[in-house]
Specification:
With 97 residues, the protein is mainly alpha-helical. The protein has 5 helices and 2 strands; from the N terminus they run E-H-H-E-H-H-H. Helix content is 61%, strand content 4%.
Length: 97
């Protein structure tokens, strides 16, 4: 019988953030995080815990606006007007569009 962790270490939380691209099924994410836990010698987190954390992470990612690099890239590529880029650069990230 495999052990499961009631609480996750910071290293596994970072692994969830790194491995989850927002499209990966929760079960596959659980497998990959479990492999990372095995590699680190840590108990595997449960499917339910991974699903809950990934769901929260995806919600946070949806609320964030584009990064500064993305705004500059879009302006340089003609996908965003210069005025829009300037406004976005002076707007906090969570309010950018």
């Amino acid at each position: 019988m495999k052990r499961s962790a009631p609480r996750l270490t910071y290293r596994l939380l970072l692994a969830i953030e790194r491995l989850d691209d927002g499209r990966l099924p929760y079960m596959e994410l659980t497998r990959r995080v479990g492999e990372e836990a095995d590699r680190l010698g840590l108990p595997r987190p449960s499917y339910e815990r991974i699903r809950t954390l990934a769901h929260e992470l995806r919600a946070i990612r949806r609320r964030r606006g584009p990064s500064l690099a993305r705004v500059v890239w879009e302006a340089g590529g003609g996908m965003r007007s210069q005025e829009s880029a300037i406004v976005a650069l002076y707007t906090p990230r969570d309010r950018r569009r």
